[in-house]
Every structure is written in structure tokens, then in C-alpha cells.
């Protein structure tokens, strides 16, 4: 496991971000397609369990750019509540049956317990009380998180720090699977036969839908319907929790016309972070960044001062080790992008996602190079 010596976060203005995955979240709104019968069944189930929570402002639809999402079913004003979901609908690690909890190590992560719950409910099929919701969760073929990629696909990200982070995530998931494998073997009537690949896919589903709530930051499964919101880095829609009324509430950040897609913000995440945790990228991501790796710790202060605009008394950095490192990485990224575009991938969406990650990092590297090349002695 490596750690960068200097890790400035380079925030970029909108620019060419390269190709993106099939599930990118565009800034423009798209009219939704007709609600499918499957989602109509889910909505009926949700309404019956939502304790009078208001679902009237949104409906589920799909767009060509962002796939499934939530769209305004009527005009929505800024500051208006667009969704109220009962907290009784959330799935928490504490919902795991007691007999299972007793055989699990205390080091098992909350995400792993959530994964076990989803595996149980999925195995029950239509007899599960959560069947309408479980049926809406993505199938393995719909998931593009980088830790699900084949080795040949992942190899094209060797130039990116994402490659190492993906390997670390794979190691963590494999370790977690080993910790629960005994429970899976002892209770096949609860889970069926679960392989490491099965576990990786359900982990991807759970991790991308979990959040912390409450004063003790209790981790829960992303509450049904909330996980249908797509990400937009420019959205400031507010997610809050009303303990008195027992609701999760989403409040609109702007006016939305009927059929506009309503977005939330998953956080200030680069395309590399989005690709790892969610399996998609966004165009012109303002949070694409680069971790500058160098074996020269003394460059840390100089680099931070230069990127922060504090150049008084600085000597020109042109030709310095850090400049050479940035130039080397730019060359490596450009070569990697060229190579992946020449390769015929089995999954086109993953090829585009890899290109988006590398292109975003390349923009960040070029921004650093431009600033360093502009250094002049005062």
C-alpha cells in the first residue's frame, strides 16, 4: 500500500473530461420514459408501508443519459419537500438475525452485515417482505464498480492511483467474505450458495446505497426510493432526517418543471472515487484530481506554496524533480488513454469509464504542470 508524499486536491473548472460511462449523470434534464409495471408494483408496495409520507412530487423514470432516476411529476419549487420516506423502511445492520450475529467476528464491517441481509432477502424470492424493493436492485451485469472488473480491464488503469485503491478494496472484500463464509456454509437454507463473486456484487449494491444517520452515525441501507436519486455535482438538494416524524426528507434546491430530473449530490467526488464506489463517472467533473507521488518529501512545501499562489522568493521549479514527475505521469496517462481506445473491450461502458477517469486525472496533471511551469523568481 502506497501513500502520496504530497496530495493537493486540484479543483478544475469545467472542461473536456473525456468519454464517460453509460450511467453518467448529465447536467441537462431529460424527459423520463413511461413508468414500467415493475416500478408501479414497487411504488404500490412503498406507499403501503410509508406511513403517509409524501411521494406525490416525484416519479421513477429513465433517461438515455443517466438511466433510472427520479423526475418531477409536477412543478416543484425551491425549498419544497419533494420526498418523504419513513425511517421504518430502512435496513440496518442490527436487522441481522441474532443467531447469525453471534457467530460473526466483532470485526465484521457494517456493510458486510447489510450484504448478508440483502442476500437473505434475495434468496427468499417473492416470500420476502422486501421483494418489491429487492427486485429493483441492480443485476450484476448492471454494475461497473472497478473492483468488479476483469484483470485485463483493470490493467488499463495502472497509471491511475485508482488501480491501487481498487486492489485494496478487493483485498478488503475478500477478507470480509472469509469472515462470514462460515455463516454462509452453516445456514445454506438462509442464503443458498454464495460465491465470492456473488458477495462482491451484493457488496457493490449495498456500499453505494448505505449512509450514516443519527447522532451515533448508524449505518443503514440506502432507504428505498432515496437510492433512485442520481448524482449531480452542482445539486444542493438537502437530505435531512426528522426524528420527531420519523421521516427522511429531501428538499428541492431549485425550481423544477414537470418531467425535470431531480438530483442530489453524493459529495465532492472525483471520477476515480465515483468509479470505485458507484461504477459511473460524470462529464466535466470539477472534482477530478491527482495524487502527486514523489520520493522527494522536501518538495511538499514548495508545491503547496506554488499551487496556493505563494511564489514570493521561490526559485523556478522548471526541471525540478517534481516537474519531471508530473511530466512523466502526463506521458503515462496519455499513453494509457491511447492504449485503452485501441483495445476491444467486452464491456463498452467500462472502457468509457476508464477513459473518463484517466482523462480527468490528465486534466488535473496538466493544470499542475501549467502552474509549475509558470513559476518565476520574484
Task: Give a summary of the structure in a few sentences.
This protein has 378 residues and is α+β, with helices and mostly antiparallel strands.
What does this entry look like structurally?
By secondary structure, this protein is α+β, with helices and mostly antiparallel strands. The protein is built from twelve helices and nine strands. The strands form four sheets. A three-stranded antiparallel sheet has the order 3-8-7, with no helix packed on it. Strands 1-2 form a two-stranded antiparallel ribbon. α11 (321-342) runs antiparallel to α12 (348-373). The two termini are 39 Å apart. Residues 1-37 have low confidence and may be disordered.
List its traits.
single chain, 378 residues, alpha+beta, two-stranded antiparallel sheet, 12 helices, disordered N terminus
The DSSP helix count reads 12
Largest sheet: 3 strands, antiparallel
What's the assembly state of these chains?
Answer: single chain
| Radius of gyration of CA atoms, rounded to a whole number | 23 Å
Sheet-strand content, in percent, reads 5-15%
What is the helix/strand order? HEEEHHHHHHHEEEEEEHHHH
Q: List low-pLDDT spans.
A: 1-37
Distance between the termini: 39 Å
